[in-house]
Amino acid sequence: MAERRTTVAYQQGEVIVWPVSWSAIWIGGLAALAAGLIFGLAGTALGAYSETRIVSWHKFQMWALVFSICGAFFAYTIGGWVAGKVLGARRAEYAVLHGVIAWLVTIPMLLVLASLGAASFYGVWYGGLAGTPAWAPPVVVVDPQAAIIARNGALGALTALLVGLAGSVIGGWMASGEPMTFTYYRTRAALAGGK
User: Domain coordinates of the chain in residue numbers?
Assistant: First the structure.
């Protein structure tokens, strides 16, 4: 029996459409927020977050650092996995795309929560997302450590967001069921009859 090959020629300027399921994205984003809240509250209950601000990285406890990194990573891994599973994608590209978009959807939500003062429920690192609200009275006496605290908070929030992005990619990839190796794409094309 002869093998059937399908060749697709793309013309210059042709648009390739990737389907997007907003239901999967919203459910994945809400799952990531819920998991992040659970990890943050668990860290607070276990005493990992004894400080509310990061004054010095030398004084920041290792337990709090590990809990913050793992909480951000696993919360978004859960969100990416949920988005990929709700989508039902069998290809990693589609599942990863939905996991990353679910991560993007949560960022404005985290900013709103931080501006309302609820970022502390997610742990110390997300406190760096909160700036000074417009309705707060201006501070007359300037704290000499305010710039250091703001820098450390921003660094912690940036790290938490980027670790969360990596988690959402891995979670989406896991949801697809495809092997998590970069050489699989060469074998996938060979199995499909492509080059």
Answer: 22-130+145-191
